[in-house]
Amino acid sequence: MAKKNIDWANLSFGYIKTDKRFVSNYSDGKWDEGAIIEDDMITMSECACVLQYAQTIFEGLKAYTTEDGRIVIFRPDLNAERLANSARRMEMPVFPEDKFVDAVVQTVKANADYVPPYGTGATLYVRPYMFGINPVIGVKPADDFQFRVFTTPVGPYFKGGAKPIVIKISDFDRAAPHGTGNIKAGLNYAMSLHAIVTAHEEGFAENMYLDARSRTKVEETGGANFLFVTKDNKIVTPKSDSILPSITRRSLMYVAKEYLGLEVEEREVYKDELKDFAECGLCGTAAVISPVGKINDHGEEICFPSGMEEMGPTTKKLYDTLTGIQMGRLEAPEGWIKVIE
Ligand SMILES: *Cc1c(COP(=O)(O)O)cnc(C)c1O
Questions:
Q1: CA 61–ligand 1 middle distance (angstroms)
Q2: Which of 84, 106, 241, 284 is the most exposed place for a label (fewest CB within 10 A)?
Q3: What is the DSSP annotation of 132-143?
Q4: Of 110, 129, 134, 113, nearest in space to 35 by CA
Q5: 184 is catalytic
Q6: CA–CA gap between residue 177 and residue 211 (Å, rounded)
Q7: What is the pLDDT of residues 69-122, one digit of tens each?
């Protein structure tokens, strides 16, 4: 194995083409065997369902090099299950969950030279996705689908320490009640682009979306779930049917309870109680936890006592524990770590 000559520590979160990807096609009602291929380009009809009606879903996970030099992935079975749920909601065929894990393993193995070395802070991001590929003009689901997995090395999310960010409460909605907020579909991102560009123009790092029905309850950001720490050190995360079930958030809740002995609560969180929390973080695969220092509610600032310099103490403990498990420094719960090689 010869690692690629990449400046790992200075990589950004961008796309870099790697050597191999996995592709499987669905037609005549069944998936083919699938294979690792080299061609990164996709040829399809100008009228492909994904291009006209956005029938596409995806997943995101990472491969890490552990302290003892193994390549591992984190809870891929949960990504498999979530993609299957997304497929059902989008009238797409389920890609069998065991085959999903196998495809991810094959793709990471085929690109092992791109898995950043331990200690660089960089990781290999893995993107499984599926889309309707045959021509569709009258509105209906596609008949033929393609499932692919590619990888791209990404740099440390926090360069020079995790500085708390400032976010705003958005006037746009991310997900409707009974909509598609709880699945990982490209369409949820397409409609968030204007909101995030607007927030960035105004100087905010992210949007906090409220529930679309009452606009009184906290949902999530465009791509990460919220975790709050109360002043008596309880962990609280919003509960709603229109939040995407983050694997990082679910893992952090488990870690809080089982490793740190903290009380955890998944419940409705009202905007009006934001001012009472001690710490706030955004959780997702990309950053694990990104600390929030301040929330701007239409000009009114909610400042967390943890401040704008560093992560709050409990957020930091959660972050260190989960990344310790992922990087092999701490013993993982049964089934959380899949060793690739
Ligand atoms: C992917 C995603 C997350 C984070 O989920 P993880 O499984 O932790 O990466 C959170 N919110 C949304 C809307 C997402 O699409």
A1: 10
A2: 241
A3: E-SB--SSS--S
A4: 110
A5: yes
A6: 8
A7: 999 999 999 999 999 999 999 999 999 999 999 999 999 999 999 999 999 999
